[in-house]
Recover the amino acids of this structure.
């Protein structure tokens, strides 16, 4: 699903996702492989729905993180206030 698109555009999306989520969001994704896999799946669905990585919105990036935290929620309660502050 993700690989059907221009690899450069995919890289740009991941760089943007890193900026959008900030260090705490990225740390949360890196702390559990299952959470990162869930994020990638959700982001892949956003790419498909938007017909390309360049059309994925910041809200969809946040949604992918939210989905990943629901699927693998070990640190959700600790990170929720931090992520909410970064989102606003």
């Amino acid at each position: 699903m993700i690989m059907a698109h221009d690899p450069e555009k995919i890289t740009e999306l991941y760089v943007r996702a890193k900026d959008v989520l900030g260090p705490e969001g990225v740390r949360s994704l890196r702390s559990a492989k299952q959470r990162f896999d869930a994020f990638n799946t959700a982001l892949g669905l956003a790419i498909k729905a938007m017909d390309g990585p360049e059309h994925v919105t910041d809200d969809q990036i946040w949604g992918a993180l939210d989905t990943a935290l629901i699927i693998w929620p070990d640190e959700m309660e600790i990170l929720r206030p931090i992520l909410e502050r970064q989102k606003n």
In short: The chain is about 75% helix and 0% strand. The chain has one domain: 7-87.
